[in-house]
Specification:
CATH topology of the largest domain in chain A: Cytochrome-c3 Hydrogenase, chain B
Distance between the termini of chain A: 34 Å
Number of strands of chain B: 6
Number of strands of chain A: 9
CATH architecture of chain B: 3-Layer(aba) Sandwich
Structural class of chain B: alpha/beta
Number of domains of chain A: 2
CATH architecture of the largest domain in chain A: Orthogonal Bundle
Shape of chain A: globular
Structural class of chain A: alpha+beta
Distance between the termini of chain B: 38 Å
Radius of gyration of chain A: 25 Å
Helix content of chain B: 25-40%
Number of domains of chain B: 1
Largest interface: A-B, 39 and 44 residues
Largest sheet of chain B: 6 strands, mixed
Order of helices and strands of chain A: HHHHHEEEHHHHHEEHHHHHEEEEHHH
Largest sheet of chain A: 3 strands, antiparallel
Shape of chain B: globular
Oligomer: heterodimer
Strand content of chain A: 5-15%
Strand content of chain B: 15-25%
Strand order of the largest sheet of chain A: 1-2-3
Radius of gyration of chain B: 16 Å
CATH class of the largest domain in chain A: Mainly Alpha
Chain lengths: ~400, ~160
Amino acid sequence: MIAFTEFDEAKSVEGYSLSAVFDFAVLTNYTKVKILPPEKFELIENRPLYAFLTGNLERMNCKAFRLHYGPVSSGIWEAGAFEVLSYGERILEVVPLLRYKNRGMEKRVEGMDVEKATCLVEKFCGTFSSSYSTAYCIAVEKIAGFESEKLDLARTLAVELERAYNHIHTIYRLALAASQKVAVSHLSALEEELLRINYKIFGHRYIFGFSRPGYVKLKSVDVKSRIKNVLKEFDELVEELSVSKIFIDRLHGTAKISRSEAVKLDTIGVAARASGLKRDARMLRRFEPIKIVEDGDSLARTVVRFEEVKNSLRTALEIIDSLSLKEISNEVKVKSGEAISFVESPPGDLVLYLKIKDGRVEKLRVRGASEVNFLSFAKSVVGNIFTDYPFALESFGLSFADASR
Amino acid sequence: MWVLRGLKKGVITTKFPEKIDEEERELLVGEVVVKKTLPFKKSIHIFFADAGSCNSCNREVEMLNNPYYDFHRLGIFFTPTPRHADVLLIAGCCKEMVEPIKRAYEAMPSPKLVVAVGDCSEEFCSLCELKADAIVRGCPPSPYKILEALLKIVGKEVLI
């Protein structure tokens, strides 16, 4: 289908579709075919199949073309674009174009009041909002020299629930790409249920306005049975999906990153854990990495996601047991200084650098996980064919808003 | 077995335009302003274009597909290309996207409407010099409110 775009101006010749004519011509020694005018012979010669059959392999790359996919497209659901180099089916090179989401948020925050800036930091990436606000609040508290166990617990609850719904969304997108319509309905219903649980606990479906420096606000933690239901249902869905041959077959062997490649590309987060690397920002604080798989393909990343959703929900249940307070409020005196904080956001670790001067933000820089992993995706998808593209992209669980703010 | 699982779960779809459960009433976040309606009343096709949002509005629009809202039962469908669309849904605000969105709008056949989703998209419409025919305010607005706007632009009544 993609090959057509290059020969678009030629359209069809005498009622035959162009592709059929070319394949016929190539397979039956094209000089005998009289249906094409002589100036079109050049087009045949440049077909990869012709080059391959005649052994003229140098020609194979000479007609590779660049496809600009996005930013207004139906497939990605986001304002991002890819430049794909290909000669028809196999992908030779991918360049993600991140500039369409560049809103200049980091510049916008500079000079703002430290507490008010949290509102904007959350909206760097709406679906990873609690990771962003947690990283920011930890940085502010680090500068002030303040630490609190209870605040930490409440924020972990938010980050883990966020991880659960984002991972389920990623699996939903993979199932959608494999046309698993029934699984898609079940998974998106689970995601909606988790968003409603978020609303119940934090007062917002995407956990905006929950965390401020030295302060968190919980509406109610009376959701244990609902989370248990989600956990049970997800367990059954995973069993059902793992025996679906169509689903597994599409993921197996797609977009492979070996361990040494992952080290070289500096892959982080879920993708690193699927390639056998023990990289997890939660290790710095209290959790051990959950699941390490060695294969490094889309299936491995999905298996890691399956385990992490279960683990996140179990962790959330444990925390809810130990949380009884509705509101945790502490006085934090904002001091001048600088700090770096790490938080494990759903696709990988998030690094935030903050410099405060006289109660105002002087400098804020963020390195989102997607920014790094887009490079890993671009390298891993080389050599795969176009039909594998969505499975490669969705398995990383990346977000353009996270990569370019 | 998928079939048994579906039967066990039962029907979870809301009866939205007619009535809504008491528990779900608190989910109605946002405000709908409709300035212009389409001249036809049955089914509409939507093209969703992200103009640089923070991703939460995208997710809420995508959520319309799930069995809780199931907007196909109301005759609303997504299309993958602006050439088949009656309505352009815009979310977010980023200067880089002004040109691509303008081109997508020009590619749509008339009669056509622009619906701005989220607080920041109103600003984007003025950047683009597009007139927003309906605005769904909220950060992000709930899927119910997006549905309400889509129903109101084809002249359907929403009793909630």
